[in-house]
Amino acid sequence: MPSSLPLSMPGVDLEPGKPPILRADSTGDAASWAAEHRDAVRALVAEHGSVLVRGLGLGDTAGTAAVVRRLASAPMTEKEAFAPRRAHSDGIYSSSKWPPHQPMCMHHELSYALEFPGLMLFACLTAPAADGATALADGPAVLGALPTDLVERFLREGWLLTRSYNEEIGASLADAFGSDDRDVIESYCRAAAIEFEWQPDGGLRTRQRRSAVVRHPVSGRRCWFNQIAFLNEWTLAPEIREYLVDVYGADGLPFNTRYGDGTPIGEDTVELLNEVYRSHTVREPWQDGDLMLVDNVRTAHSREPYEGPREVLVAMTDAVRLADCAPTVEVTAR
């Protein structure tokens, strides 16, 4: 039977500014340790929104997949990716391809989809020489810190994600939809409540309106749950934004976010969102072999800039439907 270790057990470090850190003594068999301690690990995630397990000694994809199978449900196949990943066997992915010197700001994975992971698992096979943490922020706390009028507007309107797919930058059609066949893509978009328009050059533009605030499917707590700041043009480095606007035009950016009624979100609002995230960020530098479990609905995550090689594998599990999270904006698949 799996052990049910108390949350105050020795080996769990609860320090301000850091996620909970569980010291594991796996004696070289990480999969057996995961099977034995599954309930305790999941209880820590339920209480705190995340836990970093240190001492498992994860070093390859097969070992990571074995641990994931014992801690979570079957991994999800990613759809609607915003950046390319390498898919490994057993539902394990590489981290999204993103320039090492550029941050990936706070977001909830696939929060623009109708089905998204309830649990994210990150396995560090190679820690970077400097920085590169997968930092976290608590969604209910972020929601409580935002101005009331801003929250009320997003509650009423939701948020709008616009995307422009081309062959030059960002995720390809095959990366996002698993196919570049127009019929397959159009069927997916209709089922996923995504408006689409093919461009004369063969590119695709899409729009999807989603709720910015949801209720956690287990706890019922309201969570700020979206990618409004991360996928907005004003979060991009100025030189990158200027280049993209110059090449593709203001309406042809690979991705951008707006208020739910289509009104642009101002630079000051995006900075406010990112500042609230920063003030609620916790982080712990990666060490080789670490595993971090993150409640994706409750907890946002980011990737900080880094130096040197960095290999972090990702699994998306415990699928959750938006419809089960009390969305504030009606979404109807066509």
Structural features, described:
This is TauD/TfdA family dioxygenase. Residues 28-316 form the TauD/TfdA-like domain. The longest helix is centred in the N-terminal third of the chain and has 19 residues, at 30-48. The protein has 334 residues and is α+β, with helices and mostly antiparallel strands. Residues 1-10 have low confidence and may be disordered. The protein has helices spanning 30-48, 61-71, 139-145, 148-157, 173-177, 182-191, 238-248, 267-279, and strands at residues 12-13, 21-23, 50-54, 93-94, 104-107, 115-126, 130-131, 136-138, 159-165, 195-198, 204-210, 213-215, 222-224, 255-259, 281-282, 291-295, 299-303, 306-307, 311-321. It is globular and about 60 Å long. It folds into two domains: 12-98 and 115-137 and 284-317, 4-Layer Sandwich (Double-stranded beta-helix); 141-275, Double-stranded beta-helix. It is built from eight helices and 19 strands. Strands 1-2-3-16-6-19-4 form a seven-stranded mixed β-sheet. It has a four-stranded antiparallel β-sheet with strand order 5-17-8-15. Helix content is 26%, strand content 26%. A hairpin with a 6-residue loop joins strand 12 and strand 13 (222-224).
